[in-house]
Amino acid sequence: MRILIPLLILTGTSLAGPEMIPESTETLVGQTAPSVELPLAEGGTFRLEDHRGHWVALAFWASWCSPCRAELPALVPWGEARPNLNVVAVNVDRDQADAYRFLERLGRVPPIAWDPEAHLLGVFGALAMPTTVLVDPHGTVRYIKRGYGDEHGFTELEEAMGGAR
To answer: Mean pLDDT score of the chain, rounded to an integer?
Structure first.
């Protein structure tokens, strides 16, 4: 009996479009953040440009990602301790019902924005989950943190903010 295994041939394209994926996320650090406009779970639209004058943390997560599920609740106290920081949790689940089932168990969460096709995830080149992108009050990407950080473990982001509160 033969078993056929499909092969994926990488051609340099992606689901988000090749023009959207940076060669390296480090190329975004120090650059003006791309335009961001996403629907919010509570209604309305999140626009990054509307938050100029404040630091913004775009925290990418998914309900199927165990480290994301652990980090999401920690974002609330971390953000609340910094009045000049707006935390937005960007969900990339294709099925919002999965995200809602998880969120119902949490209670307090940051504002939730939807990116079910993971377009913004691709724009920022976030290849690991969770990923948090820190944008300064002028709209410049200051840091991209990959991996889990609890409320006491956001050291890299704190350093990138230069102690701003």
So the answer is: 80
CATH (domain of 84): 3.40.30.10
With respect to residue 45, please indicate whether it lies within any of the assigned structural domains: yes
Calculate the alpha carbon distances from 11 to 17, 25, 28, 119 in Å.
12, 20, 23, 19
Does some domain include residue 151?
Answer: yes
- What is the pairing mode between strands 45-47 and 85-91? unpaired
Q: Please give the tally of structural domains in the chain.
A: 1
Model pLDDT, residue 163: 67
Q: Nearest-CA neighbor of 74 among 132, 150, 155?
A: 150
Predicted confidence at residue 160, as pLDDT, reads: 84
- Burial label, 146 (beta-carbon count in 10 A; 0-12, 13-18, 19+): middle
In degrees and rounded to multiples of 5, residue 24 shows phi and psi of -150, 140
* Owner of token pair 């480290």: 67
Q: 31-68: string of b/e by CB count within 10 Å (b at 16+)? A: eebeebebeebeeeebebeebeeebbbbbbbbbebeeb
> The whole model's pTM is what?
0.80
81-127 pLDDT, tens digit per residue, is 988 999 999 999 999 999 999 998 887 889 999 998 888 888 887 77
